[in-house]
Amino acid sequence: MAQRVIRKAAVIGAGTMGAAIAAHLANAGIPVYLLDIV
After folding, report:
1. Into how many domains does the chain fold?
2. By residue range, what is the domain housing residue 30?
3. pTM for the complete prediction?
4. Distances from the Cα of 29 to the Cαs of 8, 19, 22, 37, 38, in angstroms?
5. What are 8-20's pLDDT values in tens digits?
């Protein structure tokens, strides 16, 4: 199975878990789009 490089990511939900996931991705140098619908 071929490995794929993650170039950008979107996280839907900026609650506790979503914000943490987005922060980890950003710290890894991956551009992140964070969306929270209220």
Report:
1. 1
2. 1-38
3. 0.82
4. 9, 15, 11, 25, 28
5. 999 999 999 999 9
